[in-house]
Amino acid sequence: MTAGAKLLVWGASGHALVLADLVALLDGQIKLLVDTNPDVTSPLPGVPIVHSLDAVDQWLATASPGQRPDGFAVAIGGSHGLVRLGIHQQLVARGLDPAILIHPTAHVSASATIGSGTHVLAMAFVGAMATVGSECILNTAAIVDHECQVADGVHLGPGSTLAGCVTVASAAFVGAGATVLPRRKIGQSAIVGAGAVVTNDVAADTTVVGVPARPTA
Ligand SMILES: CC(C)(COP(=O)(O)OP(=O)(O)OC[C@H]1O[C@@H](n2cnc3c(N)ncnc32)[C@H](O)[C@@H]1OP(=O)(O)O)[C@@H](O)C(=O)NCCC(=O)NCCS
Q1: Is 146 a catalytic residue?
Q2: What is the residue range of 164's domain?
């Protein structure tokens, strides 16, 4: 994200609060919040909230140049990678730029690549030759070690570790504090429970928990 960017943030709960801190730190501004739950009110003083894509369109059509967002961030955590990717497409189609948000305390190797709309939070680490896709969340202190391949819409929870050369398919979710051993593969939309140690590959759409990680019934 460039300093001075004006963002629409989709989602108005926990992850939005984290992003609000980060956007302020990076000298950006949140101009509009969106949450499809009509009961949710804006948690950010002075920042308006709308509750539908139609309302976003209306806002974009009528906002003054100073109020109109030029970029966006999708602030939906958990295992909702496919939802994040869907919203990403809809906002790109409206001419908004997906912000890459990287906390100043994170380390991203010069040889790593980070996709559009991805958030790298405080103290996260992305090692040499790692590739991270679009609309991922590398949460607080997550580690993506050398040569990992992380596809679009993946969420790595706080303090989780991908050892070297791990592959994570799209929309997978790795819970807080989980560890994935080197060269293992995590399938599409799989979930790794908090604290798990993944010693074998995890199939698509499968939840594993425990040490060593085993599929749930
Ligand atoms: C694995 C997980 C997705 C399962 O969620 P769920 O389907 O709602 O599961 P439940 O809470 O109903 O628990 C089902 C069973 O699995 C066990 N279980 C749940 N999570 C577990 C975990 N991480 N490790 C070991 N066992 C776990 C529960 O104790 C329960 O066992 P029981 O049936 O013997 O009582 C969830 O517990 C988890 O670990 N989520 C990660 C959360 C996280 O890290 N968030 C980061 C936010 S930024």
Answers
A1: yes
A2: 101-207
Q: Name the residue type at position 186.
A: I
How many domains, in total, are found in the chain?
2
User: Tell me: the pLDDT tens digits for 136-165?
Assistant: 999 999 999 999 999 999 999 999 999 999
Task: Note if the pTM is more than 0.85.
Answer: yes
State the CATH number of the domain containing residue 62: 3.40.50.20
Residue 213 lies in a domain: no
CA 216 – CA 206 distance, rounded (Å): 8
Q: For residue 58, is pLDDT > 90?
A: yes
- Whether residue 210 has its Cβ less than 6 Å from ligand 1: yes
pLDDT tens track for 67-99:
999 999 999 999 999 999 999 999 999 999 999
Residue 100 CA to residue 86 CA, distance in Å, equals: 17
Give the tokens for residue 134.
Answer: 């679009």
Closest Cα to atom 34 of ligand 1 = 216
Q: Which residue type does 136 have?
A: C
